[in-house]
Specification:
By secondary structure, the protein is mainly alpha-helical. It has helices at residues 8-28, 40-56, 64-77, 83-92, 97-115, 123-133. Helix 2 (40-56) crosses helix 3 (64-77) and helix 3 (64-77) packs across helix 4 (83-92).
Length: 134
């Protein structure tokens, strides 16, 4: 993967924003973000949010997009080196209906926020809160 050196700061900033948008929702549900792979819908949501962010930022999906998304997933899990492994796992889950449903919700939340900064992403927090009630 050849990431352009001049893009590194931008990718790092996007990764921090993306991991924060998901991470704060884990905090609201008092669940550790490092458990993001315990539930395919949750993992899909995080991946979908980051994928939509990469698309919104016009990142090349094979270089800068992968770099930003894997960096953000590592930050979210609390282990930057895990980022590429998490990205690979997410790619492997693309055909899983539960993962895909979460990914659609994450992308929808990011796109709504991009269109209106007051529409903060909350789909993950709502899902986690609903799961805690059961």
């Amino acid at each position: 993967m050849n990431v352009q050196p001049e893009n590194l700061d931008r990718l790092e900033t996007l990764a921090k924003i993306g991991s924060s948008l998901a991470g704060v929702q884990f905090e609201a549900a008092t669940i550790e973000p490092s458990r993001l792979t315990d539930d395919n819908w949750v993992f899909g949501y995080c991946f979908g949010l980051l994928e939509a962010m990469a698309q919104y930022a016009n990142l090349d999906q094979y270089t800068d997009g992968v770099s930003m998304m894997s960096n953000a997933l590592g930050k979210l899990a609390g282990s930057d080196p895990m980022g590429m492994d998490l990205f690979g796992k997410a790619v492997d889950l693309q055909s899983d209906a539960t993962f895909s449903g979460g990914a659609e919700a994450g992308a929808s939340d990011l796109n709504a926020w991009a269109a209106n900064a007051e529409a903060l992403p909350t789909g993950l927090a709502r899902h986690l809160a609903g799961r805690a009630k059961h």
